[in-house]
Structure formats: structure tokens, C-alpha cells
Request: fold
Amino acid sequence: MLFLLKTLSPLDWVMIVSWGVIFVVTLIIELETMDLITIWFSFSALVTLICGVLFLKPLHQIIFFVGLSIILILLTKPLAKKKMRGTFVKTNTDRLIGMLAVVTKEIVPNEIGEVRVESQLWRAVNYEELNFAVGEKVLIDAISGIKLVVSKIENAGNIEILRK
Reply:
């Protein structure tokens, strides 16, 4: 082993130390974030460091590191993202999206009106330049800040809103 290390040139030592530093820094970043951002570079740096000790030329080490990093990202990132994504659970106000509401204060273009949903009054807007009369049933499409974004319901006369 000592015989192998004595044949390394100063440039080889610089490259080996560089891969070691890249490995440690990217590993620390990964351990701090746990977002699978730099783990690919950590692994690539470690493998490249081993290849550097086994006399892979410096230019080939750089090409190998970049190539291996790209391959690892392309092969594993989508799979890891899919596993980490989980499911989205609607909480609090998110559950209002898709529900029906009744207009309690007229909604006109460029003005804020008011709707009642689940016995609560909410400020409401419509971005389609439509008018909504008091008592009209509307569909909640989104939440924008503290306002509900509502839209017209086709054939709203047949819809009944249940009260709790």
C-alpha cells in the first residue's frame, strides 16, 4: 500500500483531497437538509475519490464525477421524489374548495362580496367579471388570501345546501 501511495503525483493528491472535501461538504449539507439534494454528489465524490487513488487521471476523474452525478440524479431523483411526496391532506380552510356557498352580499366585478358557507361568513370575489345576486348559490373554486374565489353553478335551482 505504501508503495502505491508514493507513486502519486502532487496533482493526484490535490484531486484526492478535493474529492474528500466535496464528499464531506455535500454530506453535511445533505444531513442538514434531508431533501436529497446533494446525496448524489456525495456518492459520486466518494466513488471518484476511490478511482483517483486507483490512478484514474485527473481529467478522467472530473468527467467521471460529472457523468456519475448526472446518471444518479436522472435515475433516482424521480423515484425519491415520488416516495417523499406523500399524500396531501386538506385541513382547515382547504376543505372549503369545491363546496357550495350562498351569496349574502352582492358580488360584482372588481368588488368584494360576501358568502355564507357552513354557517360562516366569508369575503368572496369572482375573477370572471360576473355578477352574483344575494341568495344565489355559488361554487368555491379557490382561496385567495382571506377571500374565497367563487364561480357560477349551472342549473343551481336543483341544488340544496344542507345546514349543520
